[in-house]
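Lab notebook, bench 4. Still working through the backlog of constructs that have no structural model yet. Next entry is a single chain of 101 residues. Request: give me the structure tokens for it.
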Amino acid sequence: MVCDKDTFSVDDKMGEAFIDIKPYLHCVKMGLTDIPEGHVVKIVQPDRTNCLAEESRCIWRNGKLVQEMTLRLRNVKSGEIFIEIEWIDVTDSQGLSEADL
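Model written out:
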């Protein structure tokens, strides 16, 4: 759910959007290192099963894999939101080694 942030009143619901992180997680599990800056690892196309407003790219940036997405809000007349996700390894965690994708 996407809401605005009001200081003096209740936050208003602006719509809903969801992301499918499986394509991104598959790229993370590839264990990429030492690839050129700005290299596009994967392109995810918008379709009826996701909220993507345009194609989304998994990009190697600053030694990390990020995915940029423009999402079309649902259950609202109109609206889009731009988000970026990045995987962060946490010390002493299993990470994706045991994840079933």
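Notes after review: The first strand starts at residue 2 and ends at 3. The mean pLDDT is 85. Flag for follow-up if needed.
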